[in-house]
Design goal:
Mean pLDDT: 92
Distance between the termini: 30 Å
Number of helices: 10
Low-confidence stretches: none
Strand content: 15-25%
Structural class: alpha/beta
Helix content: 40-55%
Largest sheet: 7 strands, mixed
Radius of gyration: 17 Å
Length: about 230
């Protein structure tokens, strides 16, 4: 088990370098899906919890849909975020040991957090506990199938937990506490093998010019996305 102090140090450093000043296209695609869900469900004036908010980069967008409480291990990063966004309630600490109240939120959002927690089933139960009956979970997590088979990813650093899941494993985790209504992949990425060629910018830029995002969306539907997106209802 990774000591919580080591995890806090890692995520303070990582978020300060990788999220406070820029947001990767993979994260932007996740945000696009989540805001699309919020719009299609006509969610307004909701109580929203973001579990594992990183630098808080998504919180302003979420605040269009209601009041936002956001938490992360990155206490130093959240201190700066709270000064930039005083309308967001930032709560630093270990989510598994924070008490936000039972059945309090209408929506829980968690992006690329599941793979970085020790006890995934307990994490999912806690997400459910914080949701009101009928509330929505909007989750993004890394796609084990794509990362293991089509990408060379550096080994985890000290303080970084890594437990990727595939689509079937994620569905099984969620179905103990939720009704899963959507589960699909987004953001095809590869840096090894044939998929590196299939996803290369040299090949895809002219395809995108001719066909828009249709080919990209097809690869997502076929399960070749870096990220698994899940919409579930309590």
């Amino acid at each position: 088990m990774q000591e919580i102090g080591l995890q806090t140090r890692f995520w303070n450093d990582w978020n300060a370098s990788a999220r406070e000043h820029a947001v990767h296209d993979v994260s932007l695609r996740q945000a696009e899906v989540v805001t699309g869900w919020l719009d299609s469900l006509e969610i307004r004036d909701a109580a929203i919890l973001e579990a594992g908010c990183g630098s808080g980069w998504f919180c302003n967008q979420l605040s269009r849909y209601g009041s936002v409480t956001a938490t992360d291990l990155s206490d130093e990063v959240l201190a700066r975020a709270s000064r930039r966004m005083p309308h967001i309630r930032f709560v630093p600490g270990d989510f598994m040991h924070l008490d936000f109240g039972a059945e309090k939120f209408d929506v829980v959002v968690t992006l690329e957090v599941l793979s970085h927690v020790e006890e995934q089933a307990a994490f999912v139960r806690k997400l459910a506990d914080h949701l009101r009956p009928g509330g929505y979970l909007m989750m993004a997590t890394q796609n084990r199938y794509v990362l293991e088979n089509f990408n060379n990813v550096p080994p985890p650093a000290t303080g970084q937990i890594r437990r990727w899941v595939d689509k079937g494993e994620l569905r099984n985790l969620l179905e103990n506490n939720f009704v899963v209504t959507e589960l699909f992949t987004v953001s095809p990425k590869a840096n090894k093998g044939l998929m590196r060629v299939v996803n290369s910018s040299r090949l895809n830029e002219p395809i995108r010019f001719l066909f828009g995002n249709r080919v990209e969306r097809l690869k997502e539907r076929l399960g070749f996305g870096w990220t698994i997106m899940a919409l579930a209802r309590k």
